[in-house]
């Protein structure tokens, strides 16, 4: 029996799975410990169920995920609108160093993924899907770029990316604590600050959400989406004059960069126009539905044969990040307690996501003492700025090997 779901019923299923995942995460200490996103839980449960039903010949689901692109565009536009140049200035020199280190990590993650793809005799873009796309990019990056890579004819790229992102998310939660404990014990580091909450929030002094400011944020997001779609088309046409087929610039990438431009122009006109509480709310909902819709349509049977190469690539990624954090990042950040805590955050979002980074740092500071610098820099880079530097690296890699 085949169950065909149209656009509306597919959206309903995605939101239902999002809510189911939220309920399960709230009740599971293990899922909370590793910061597993709620839509990932709900979406994967349905994907497993659909795979079992298909394998037994009972039911085959046909889903209409055409709305997925809309939610993806919305999410990346909200990321861009959060990237204020004023935040970079606020973080100072250490923020720039940390940001550059994230860019270097993205390059090396792609180098590792592509290099090991030749070792296992698989397509380089499959290896890249276990690189910066799913490590620094997390489930959002794996879903977005996986769709792009599959459109280039690389089957199962999306599923590989999601699987790698899940492994990376768990690994990021596991290695952060031991990594920092090693640095603290070896260098006898101690916090010099008074206990206080330093977690950065862009919404700290904003007014409450209202119809007026919410509508304005929706307008800025849609303007970014429209401008990004146009930018992607124009960029591909212009570059086609210099090379065959041109350089592919996905519309969600364009949306994010246009959003960055809009944010910083608007800030110069009036610093109170952008309302980050509304932006964050819209982005979180869009990301949740986007991920839920993407994961529930995964064809798990397509990645079974690539399980071993995928695990090996992710393992190498974890080893490289740990060594880089200990011997390079810790030193260039100052070789002090703040640098050690930032290494915990680096492990979290370098392999998983910003919530992972914050969970790692919370565990460290709860035991060893607070770090104002880490709580300022890591969320700004992990939540807003990291995509700005990693996207060009990923897009360039896709165009080189496509």
Automatic annotation (TrEMBL):
Organism (species): Sporosarcina gallistercoris
Subcellular location: Cell membrane
Record-stated family: Belongs to the glutamate:Na(+) symporter (ESS) (TC 2.A.27) family.
Superkingdom, natural source: Bacteria
Function text: Catalyzes the sodium-dependent transport of glutamate.
InterPro entries listed in its UniProt record: GltS (IPR004445)
Membrane topology listed for this record: Multi-pass membrane protein
Transmembrane segments annotated in the record for this chain: 6-26, 38-58, 70-88, 95-120, 157-180, 218-235, 247-266, 278-301, 307-330, 374-401
Principal location listed in the UniProt entry: membrane
Keyword tags: Amino-acid transport, Cell membrane, Ion transport, Membrane, Sodium, Sodium transport, Symport, Transmembrane, Transmembrane helix, Transport
A Pfam match: Glt_symporter
Protein's name in the database: Sodium/glutamate symporter
């Amino acid at each position: 029996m085949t169950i065909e779901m149209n656009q509306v019923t597919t959206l309903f299923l995605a939101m239902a799975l999002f809510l189911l995942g939220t309920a399960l995460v709230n009740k599971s200490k293990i899922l909370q410990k590793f910061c597993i996103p709620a839509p990932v839980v709900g979406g994967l449960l349905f994907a497993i169920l659909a795979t079992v039903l298909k394998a037994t010949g009972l039911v085959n689901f046909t889903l209409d995920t055409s709305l997925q692109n809309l939610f993806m565009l919305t999410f990346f536009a909200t990321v861009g609108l959060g990237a204020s140049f004023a935040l970079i200035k606020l973080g100072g020199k250490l923020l720039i160093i940390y940001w550059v280190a994230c860019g270097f990590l993205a390059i090396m993650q792609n180098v590792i993924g592509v290099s090991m793809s030749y070792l296992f005799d698989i397509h380089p873009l499959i290896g890249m899907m276990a690189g910066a796309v799913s490590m620094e990019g997390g489930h959002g990056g794996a879903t977005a770029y996986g769709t792009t890579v599959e459109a280039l004819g690389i089957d199962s790229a999306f599923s590989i990316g999601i699987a790698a992102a899940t492994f990376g998310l768990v690994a990021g939660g596991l290695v952060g604590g031991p990594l920092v404990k090693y640095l603290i014990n070896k260098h006898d580091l101690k916090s010099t600050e008074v206990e206080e909450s330093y977690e950065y929030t862009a919404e700290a002094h904003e007014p409450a959400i209202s119809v007026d400011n919410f509508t304005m944020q929706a307008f800025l997001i849609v303007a970014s989406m429209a401008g990004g779609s146009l930018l992607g088309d124009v960029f591909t046409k212009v570059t086609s004059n210099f090379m065959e087929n041109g350089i592919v610039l996905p519309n969600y990438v364009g949306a994010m960069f246009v959003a960055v431009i809009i944010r910083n122009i608007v800030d110069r006109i009036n610093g109170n126009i952008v309302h980050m509480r509304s932006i964050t709310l819209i982005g979180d909902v869009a990301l949740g539905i986007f991920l839920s819709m993407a994961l529930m349509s995964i064809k798990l049977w397509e990645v079974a044969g690539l399980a071993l190469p995928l695990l090996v690539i992710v393992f190498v990624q974890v080893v490289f990040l740990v060594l880089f954090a200990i011997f390079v990042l810790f030193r260039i950040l100052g070789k002090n307690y703040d640098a050690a805590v930032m290494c915990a955050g680096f492990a979290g979002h370098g392999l998983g996501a910003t919530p992972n980074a914050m969970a790692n740092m919370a565990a460290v500071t709860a035991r060893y003492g607070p770090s104002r610098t880490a709580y300022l820099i890591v969320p700004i880079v992990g939540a807003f700025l990291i995509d700005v530097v990693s996207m060009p690296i990923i897009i360039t890699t896709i165009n080189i090997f496509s």
